[in-house]
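FAQ

Q: What does a record look like?
A: Structure on top, sequence underneath. For example:
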């Protein structure tokens, strides 16, 4: 029965993240679903109440006992879908999502004397944005730590394994789509690992900030109630306890610059991987890779012979959606009219959508990589068909020994000439006024052997 309900939900979901791709995005749902957002709000409200209880300048809220602290912790750690449903039921009356959390906490602890007697200090001096900015910060930080960075490290590990496995596998390079100086397959994957790891490190370094300073950011209500308390110190302690950096200068909202940085960094990662998707797609098209087939799969509804690179196409498409959203977040979220408008609220509810599409894209890419098999014969044939790429080392050695117009001579011999042969190049080398050992080294070169330090670079990553 449960499976039938799940299947129906997937079939009727408006978003593919909750339908077709629900299993792939499930790790993010704990952080960015409505339940995840409400749970994070509860964590923030509890952290604030605990801070008030620990503040000696507020005699009305005495320190909580160990049992009460444990009960408050359980409200956060044991938060369930039923708890979230109850809060949403309260919201149907309040028509205010954060106020519903406050009322639920009062209801939840009505029977616990230490909390019940200070019920009006739940959400004390807070604006809704004090709770929301920290809740979103928690979700973004926890998802980065628990889901996103581990996924990126797993992808980098697989790419590194490919780089090492094929470090010495010579491959004709292509610049402007044309045959160019050979590389190795492993070195091209090592390039991606280096880029991805640098971009991932930048993503990890983005500091998520939070604020807890009232309706317009100046602790007005706090000071009106308790003028002698250092409220900035209290707020900084609460924000830090949630694992976020403290932003001392805000309007009603934390200005979201850090979220813009977060999604700028994410978009850079996705762009690197789109580049990889397209390159591997091209290598499959050239025949450098074959794709392992799965029994029962169909490549085309009308052409039975096809094995399409669908995983790389799926990855590219989802990463493109993720980046479109990420760039909107970066452009929109730091902009708010005067001290606050509500346009950020609905936008922030979609940050999980961007991350969901990114995660789908990364997963599809890994799935595609696992299916690849190198076609050595195709790579060798391509190299052997393009001896003209050795024009570069020949003219470079000619420069070393001061021969006249080396570039121009090789241009006249090879430019636009496909099908250049070993024999033609050797005849040209034999006619040069070069030392015998230099001629010998040049004539020992083949396209497959002309890879410079590519193998060592691939193994070093």
């Amino acid at each position: 029965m449960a499976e039938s309900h799940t299947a129906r939900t997937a079939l009727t979901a408006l978003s593919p993240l909750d339908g077709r791709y629900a299993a792939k995005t499930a790790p993010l749902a704990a952080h960015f679903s409505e339940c995840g957002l409400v749970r994070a709000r509860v964590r923030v409200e509890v952290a604030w109440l605990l801070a008030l209880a620990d503040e000696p300048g507020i005699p009305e809220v005495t320190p909580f006992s160990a049992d009460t602290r444990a009960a408050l912790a359980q409200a956060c750690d044991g938060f369930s879908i039923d708890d979230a449903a109850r809060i949403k039921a309260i919201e149907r009356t309040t028509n205010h999502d954060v106020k519903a959390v406050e009322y639920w906490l009062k209801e939840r602890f009505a029977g616990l004397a230490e909390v019940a007697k200070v019920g009006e200090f739940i959400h004390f001096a807070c604006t809704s944005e004090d709770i929301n900015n920290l809740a979103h910060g928690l979700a973004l930080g926890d998802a980065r730590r628990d889901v996103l960075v581990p996924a990126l490290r797993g992808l980098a590990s697989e790419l590194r394994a490919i780089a090492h496995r094929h470090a010495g596998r010579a491959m004709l390079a292509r610049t402007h789509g044309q045959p160019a100086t050979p590389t190795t397959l492993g070195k091209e994957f090592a390039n991606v690992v280096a880029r991805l790891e640098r971009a991932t490190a930048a993503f990890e370094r983005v500091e998520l900030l939070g604020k807890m300073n009232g309706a317009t950011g100046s602790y007005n209500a706090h000071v009106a109630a308790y003028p002698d308390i250092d409220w900035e110190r209290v707020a900084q302690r609460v924000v830090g306890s949630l694992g976020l950096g403290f932003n001392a200068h805000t309007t009603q909202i934390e200005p979201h610059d850090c979220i813009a940085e977060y999604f700028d960094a994410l978009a850079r990662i996705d762009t690197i991987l789109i580049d990889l998707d397209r390159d591997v797609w091209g290598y499959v098209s050239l025949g450098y890779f074959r794709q392992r087939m799965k029994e029962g799969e169909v490549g085309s509804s009308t052409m039975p012979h096809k094995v399409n690179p669908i995983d790389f196409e799926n990855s590219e498409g989802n990463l493109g959606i993720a980046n479109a959203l990420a760039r909107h977040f970066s452009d929109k979220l730091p902009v708010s009219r005067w001290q606050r408008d509500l346009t950020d609220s609905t936008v922030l509810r979609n940050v999980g959508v961007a991350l969901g599409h990114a995660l789908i894209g990364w997963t599809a890419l890994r799935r595609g990589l696992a299916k690849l098999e190198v076609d050595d014969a195709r790579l060798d044939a391509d190299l052997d068909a393009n001896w003209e790429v050795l024009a570069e080392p020949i003219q470079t050695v000619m420069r070393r020994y001061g021969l006249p117009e080396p570039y121009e001579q090789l241009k006249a011999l090879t430019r636009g000439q496909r099908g250049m042969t070993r024999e033609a190049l050797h005849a040209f080398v034999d006619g040069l006024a070069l030392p015998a050992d230099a001629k010998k080294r040049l004539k020992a070169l083949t396209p497959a052997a002309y890879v410079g330090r590519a193998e060592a670079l691939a193994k070093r990553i």
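Q: Is there anything notable about this one?
A: The beta strands are 170-175, 178-184, 209-210, 245-246, 289-291, 372-374.
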